[in-house]
Design a protein that fits this description.
alpha+beta; 5-stranded mixed sheet; 11 helices; 8-stranded antiparallel sheet; 330 residues
Length: 330
């Protein structure tokens, strides 16, 4: 396994350290291309403000690579958003966590003082955005978060912490949009800067709303909502079961159920079901197990190709036909 060690900085220095480990060069303090003998893709750096920077990874390696971010003295937080369509591994506090693959946890927040590792899957396209932020901008968040972490004893080191969770639905759409753009486009850097700020805005909006509403949701209610979410994920081949059915499963009125589901997942039950169904649809399209798009359509219990295509394009910015692999006779 090739090991690449680097420090995290708000300047292009960290990109140059990664380039040195990959035995390549940085262009214009912004871009490095993966050497062909290691794989393909690129890493793009931009400094948004003097206290916020972003690194965009769009890479595929053909050998095992481990990026080791060494603990540094700079007071920084790193937000790692992973929207790969497979599982990567991120190591925090000497524990490997699966990250990416849509249905898994796909957001990690790390203190710069805490060393971490990142191992992309081999022969898969890894797409991730890392936001590096000066802690001076996040005093209130850190104070609140550290208090919560210490109270639950999840972190034994009071000077550093981590968070491991889900990307909200709006942020997923933002990253989906930028992953389909070319870094050669003149507007790419501006798009990355705007997307990065929106990602932060979405996270803190969700964080503070969740804290202000936490007392509104009991543990029993949360378990009930989770149960219905899992039911939806396990029954994607059928039609949406209706809010009435889900509310009854949760033991709530329809209005209360819809309200609590949105508070928990920042999306309506129906839109969550559609979103999960489109992810399944993408897997089926690429499986090579079907002769026509219509067969995939029926497998998902849809009758109108126009509806499926519009929802699919809305999420992936691609037509289903672009991802369809026709079955080959064996």
């Amino acid at each position: 396994m090739k090991k690449i060690s680097h420090y995290c900085t708000l300047t292009p220095d960290s990109l140059h350290q990664i380039a040195e480990g990959l035995e390549t060069k940085v262009i214009d303090d912004k871009i490095l291309y993966i050497p062909k003998e290691l794989g393909n893709g690129h890493v793009f750096f931009t400094q948004i403000t003097p206290e916020i920077s972003a690194i965009f990874f769009d890479v595929s390696f053909n050998i095992p690579i481990k990026f080791v971010r060494l603990g540094g003295l700079d007071d920084l937080l790193i937000f790692h958003y992973d929207l790969s369509e497979h599982v990567n591994l991120i190591k925090i506090n000497n524990i490997d966590y699966e990250i990416g693959s849509f249905d898994r946890l796909d957001l990690a927040i790390m203190d710069n003082q805490l060393e971490s590792g990142f191992k992309p899957a081999i022969d898969e396209r890894t797409v991730a955005i890392r936001l590096i932020i000066n802690k001076n901008l996040l005093t209130d968040f850190i104070k609140t978060y550290l208090k919560e972490e210490n109270s639950t004893k999840r972190n034994t080191n009071k000077s550093s912490f981590y968070h491991y969770g889900n990307i909200d639905s709006n942020s997923i759409l933002l990253i989906q949009a930028i992953k389909n753009k070319s870094i050669s486009e003149f507007s790419f850097e501006s798009l990355l800067k705007g997307t990065s700020l929106k990602l932060l805005g979405n996270f803190f909006n969700k964080f503070y709303n969740a804290n202000s509403q936490a007392s509104d949701i009991t543990e029993i209610e949360n378990e009930a909502i989770t149960k219905t979410k899992e039911y939806l994920q396990n029954n994607l081949y059928g039609p949406f079961p209706s809010v009435t059915f889900l509310a009854a499963m949760a033991g709530m009125s329809e209005s209360k159920y819809k309200s609590l589901f949105r508070k928990c997942y920042d999306i309506t039950p129906n839109n969550f079901f559609i979103y999960e169904k489109m992810k399944l649809g993408k897997e089926l399209l690429k499986s090579g197990e079907f002769n026509t798009l219509t067969e995939v359509l029926y497998e998902l219990n849809y009758s109108k190709l126009s509806y499926f295509s519009s929802k699919y394009f809305e999420l992936f910015d691609r037509k289903p036909s672009e991802d369809f692999l026709k079955r080959r006779d064996r």
